[in-house]
Amino acid sequence: MLSIFGRAAASKATNPVGKALLRTGLTPNSVTIIGTLGSIICAVTLFPTGHLFWGAWAIAAFVVFDMLDGAMARAQGGGTSFGAVLDASCDRIADGAIFGAIAWWAIYTAHSQHLLIATLISLVTSQVISYVKARAEASGLSANVGLIERPDRLVIVLVGAVLTGAGEYLDIQWMAGVIYPAMWILAIASVITVGQRLLEVRKGYLREKELVNAGGGQ
User: Fold this and answer.
1) pTM of the prediction?
2) Which among 91, 95, 152, 171 is annotated as catalytic?
3) pLDDT digit string (tens) for 126-162?
4) Which of 70, 119, 129, 176 has the fewest beta carbons under 10 Å from its own?
5) CA-angle at 197, arms to 69 and 82, nearest 5°
6) Distance from first CA to last CA of the chain, Å, rounded?
């Protein structure tokens, strides 16, 4: 949802920064790689060791930096097909690192099987959501629907981690448990989104089939 409603506002904010980064000699692909590596390193070093608050803020900073690759590509007159594949692949890797790190914390620090299950559901469905869309487009269909996309996932998981880390530091019990409902909300919303996209693909397939049948009957 955020990727749809917040895209125009984000572009206005990032376009000037993207132009400035190009003047430094950086390329959109290098920004993609730097942002991804930063997110991975912060996730696997800070989350498993219990530093949820600082880990979430550090990852958020690299996620924002990673968003600038699109602004840089637009400033150059458009991105490349390789850049699009690289960006999508790096997003999947970064998401896997973030959810994997939270899963590690859930089982070895929080000792919560329920949180582990919610995190693993979120990890798998986050990959499937993107895969369904990519596979549908490769087949000439559309799956550009759904309750939740990557920006929404990141907001939910990072806000949950920030509040949980702050709650633990301040010894506020209810705040220290925010990560639990946050991950279950994310897991349920992600499962719904997978279903929505598969249904959209099926509708598109049936429409195409009807058109083919109608054309054959003329």
Assistant:
1) 0.90
2) 91
3) 999 999 999 999 999 999 999 999 999 999 999 999 9
4) 176
5) 30
6) 42
